[in-house]
Task: inverse folding
């Protein structure tokens, strides 16, 4: 059977439905176990105040133009282009939801994705550290819950081995031919890195060292070489000597290493590399002006390198609050070389009279009441799918509207900045309805102060992209 998702994409089941009689209404398509699992995953995430990892298309509302443009950016990257995009919006505007949508869309295109949380010891001022966080955060469609860097390196070396065996007719089970295979693989490692203009001998030595250590079963050296390639800075000198490297990833070679790794990723069949930076506004918190300038210079370098084709099939997404793009003392406007490149010029765009989604900066307006009602209805129906019940009889559209209005009254303003907290509260109400037939959901329309406090607490913490 075929199940159509909210995004309009079809997932194939194992059995085909019998043909309908002419003129007969088509039978509803029964949800699959996978549909129910995804629905429950969404509900579980919302109940904790988190952004769902998968199925984000099912609850994103009012963002069609933005989502379509981001998918177009990914398609352009997949075809060999590249780019940098900025998401601007205050807390509760949906930045993390959109980042999650980009991650899921990238995975659907078989692209490798890395999420870098700038609030967790990752500073854009030190790109060598950013390189490490990018490599450490790599996830793929097949490995969404586990670091994929080691697997990618192994897959690349395996591809080189297969090429050698096919070209020279060598048998890896023959001990003598095994040594010959290894020699050819080491030559191909050098050739690949030369093709992407990596002339750092330590980089090639680390690959060769990892490969050789793996062949002889020396896990300690293999792990050290892999860690060095990943950008780890605490590899003991004694171990580094065993695979003939010195130093580590530095600000001078980090961009070149990133280019080499992105090329390697694509060479084994992935559609590209997508890097998502969360909480970019934290650059403003760097105490020293020169550190902030370095951070903005690194962003500009990514902008330049993707525009000039030096990082093909790489897409970088920076999400930040509006103050990042407005603060002339510590925000992006304090670094004109970057600000002049990305700021809108047309007055209608500046005034937000029109929304131009192709601009480098994509502005996300806050949640409106209409959008909150739309997503509430979606969450209600997803809850019904997850737990196999019909919630519309207990929570109809009138109830959802009244619940939204009651919270708006408590907050003293239109519901614009509390979608996660509101949805967490809504899921609690849905759970009570599904588990207790005597529970009257309208008793929650007089929202207690503790519920309002809980909603404020959820909204007081910026959402983060989570792994499985």
Result:
């Amino acid at each position: 059977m075929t199940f159509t998702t909210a995004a309009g994409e079809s997932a194939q089941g194992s059995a085909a439905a019998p043909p309908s009689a002419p003129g007969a209404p088509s039978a509803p398509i029964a949800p699959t176990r996978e549909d129910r699992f995804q629905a429950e995953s969404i509900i579980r995430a919302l109940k904790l105040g988190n952004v769902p990892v998968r199925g984000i298309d099912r609850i994103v509302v009012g963002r069609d133009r933005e989502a379509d443009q981001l998918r177009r950016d990914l398609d352009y990257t997949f075809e060999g282009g590249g780019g940098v995009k900025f998401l601007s919006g205050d807390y509760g505007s949906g930045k993390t939801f959109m980042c999650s949508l980009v991650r899921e869309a990238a995975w659907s295109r078989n692209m490798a994705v890395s999420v870098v949380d700038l609030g967790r010891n990752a500073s854009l001022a030190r790109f060598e550290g950013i390189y490490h966080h990018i490599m450490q955060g790599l996830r793929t469609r097949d490995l969404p819950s586990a670091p994929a860097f080691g697997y990618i390196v192994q897959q690349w070396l395996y591809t080189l081995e297969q090429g050698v065996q096919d070209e020279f007719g060598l048998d890896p089970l023959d001990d003598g031919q095994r040594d010959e295979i290894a020699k050819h693989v080491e030559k191909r490692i050098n050739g690949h890195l030369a093709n992407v203009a990596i002339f750092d001998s330590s980089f090639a030595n680390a690959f060769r060292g990892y490969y050789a250590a793996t062949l002889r079963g020396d896990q300690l050296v293999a792990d050290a070489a892999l860690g060095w390639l990943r950008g780890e800075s605490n590899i003991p000198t004694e171990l580094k000597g065993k695979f003939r490297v010195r130093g580590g990833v530095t600000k001078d070679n980090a961009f070149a290493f990133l280019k080499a790794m992105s090329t390697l990723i694509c060479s084994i069949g992935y559609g590209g590399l997508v890097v998502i930076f969360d909480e970019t506004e934290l650059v403003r918190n760097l105490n020293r002006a020169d550190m902030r300038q370095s951070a903005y210079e690194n962003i500009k370098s990514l902008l330049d390198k993707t525009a000039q084709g030096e990082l093909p099939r790489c897409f970088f997404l920076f999400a930040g609050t509006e103050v990042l793009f407005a603060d002339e003392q510590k925000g992006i406007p304090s670094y004109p070389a970057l600000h002049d490149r990305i700021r809108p010029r047309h007055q209608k765009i500046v005034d937000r009279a029109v929304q131009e989604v192709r601009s480098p900066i994509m502005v996300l307006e806050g949640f409106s009441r209409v959008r909150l009602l739309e997503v509430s209805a979606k969450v209600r129906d997803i809850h019904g799918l997850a737990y196999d019940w019909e919630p519309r009889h207990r929570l109809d559209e009138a109830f959802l509207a009244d619940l939204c209005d009651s919270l708006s009254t408590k907050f003293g303003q239109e519901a614009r900045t509390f979608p996660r907290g509101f949805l967490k509260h809504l899921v609690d109400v849905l759970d009570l309805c599904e588990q207790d037939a005597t529970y009257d959901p309208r008793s929650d329309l007089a929202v207690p102060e503790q519920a309002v406090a809980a909603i404020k607490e959820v909204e007081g913490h910026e959402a983060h992209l989570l792994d499985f």
Summary: The longest strand covers residues 82-88. The first helix runs from residue 33 to 47.
